[in-house]
Automatic annotation (TrEMBL):
CDD domains: ABC_PstB_phosphate_transporter. This is Phosphate ABC transporter ATP-binding protein PstB. It comes from Lacticaseibacillus jixianensis. The lineage of its organism: Bacteria, Bacillati, Bacillota, Bacilli, Lactobacillales. NCBIfam families: 3a0107s01c2. Residues 6-247 form the ABC transporter domain. One of its GO terms (molecular function) is ATP binding. The gene is pstB. It holds the Pfam family ABC_tran. Keywords: ATP-binding, Nucleotide-binding, Phosphate transport, Transport.
Length: 252
């Protein structure tokens, strides 16, 4: 039995009076990739952002339910949100490197945490860029601007930036939807390589991506979790008619 890294029970989220999540029960195993799919507006990103408290910043949000990381209530009053976000890193749809060098981007979180030793920083840069499958492309220009890279390269640097602080969980919100097919495939292959070390949760609109790289899939519809299962099983024999209709392109 795999260890459950994140558990969530009866999660509701309200934007003002609008209930965007209507009681979600969903758990994530370590060393698995879970894909979250569903039509636009079904609540996938809202749910993903709950897992490292990114919704806290939005005004008039009300959150109910129980979400735990390794058994710890992440909404407990004594939870340190900065350290939570180190343990649960996030990659966004648009690559968002800082306007610094590649090197300074990757070590950003470590420097914030007070790490100054040059050898430690150098080693973290090399390891993280290798894990993010971009070391060979950038090793000779670590001190040039990350903004001069292609979109796909920028996204891999952003992933290296998350990996450098050694998270347990990586959240990715449509990480390849702004990228060309070759860059998307590079990122998919990298995520498959990272699976042995991390728990990966991915929002995607791309059904091929979900079926190709995820172990589990969660299908959301209008704020509900309709179905959650092994990806192969869900794509071949969905339990629910709504899932089948969505996978067959009948809506969304
Ligand atoms: N900051 C916000 N304030 C008010 N409503 C919001 C906010 N963010 C999202 N919503 C609403 O909550 C619902 C869920 O949005 P969410 O972005 O989570 O959906 P999604 O499934 O990720 O969609 P997409 O695939 O288009 O990104 C939508 O109806 C959306 O309009």
């Amino acid at each position: 039995m795999k260890n459950k890294v994140i558990t969530s029970k009866n999660v509701h989220l309200f934007y003002g009076s609008f209930e965007a999540l209507t009681g979600i029960d969903l758990d994530f195993n370590e060393h698995e990739i879970t894909a979250m799919i569903g039509p636009s507006g079904c609540g996938k990103s809202t749910y993903l952002r709950l897992l490292n408290r990114m919704n806290d910043l939005i005004p008039n949000v009300k959150i109910q339910g129980d979400i735990r990381l390794e058994g710890e209530d992440i909404y407990a009053a004594n939870m340190d949100v900065v350290s939570l976000r180190k343990r649960v890193g996030m990659v966004f749809q648009q690559p968002n490197p800082f306007p610094f060098s590649i090197y300074d981007n990757v070590v950003y979180g470590l420097r914030l945490a007070g790490v100054k030793d040059r050898g430690t920083l150098d080693a973290a840069v090399e390891t993280s860029l290798k894990q993010a499958a971009i070391w060979d492309e950038v090793k000779d220009k670590l001190h040039t601007s990350a903004l001069a890279l292609s979109g796909g390269q920028q996204q891999r640097v952003c992933i290296a930036r998350v990996l450098a602080v050694q998270p347990e969980v990586i959240l990715l919100d449509e990480p390849t939807s702004a990228l060309d097919p070759i860059s998307s495939t590079q990122i998919e292959n990298m995520l498959l390589d990272l699976r042995d070390r991390y728990t990966i949760i991915l929002v995607t609109h791309n059904m091929h991506q979900a079926s190709r790289i995820s172990d589990k899939t969660a299908f959301f519809l209008q704020g509900r979790l309709v179905e959650f299962d092994d990806t192969k099983k869900m794509f071949l024999t969905p339990r629910e008619k709504e899932t089948e209709d969505y996978l067959n392109g009948r809506f969304g």
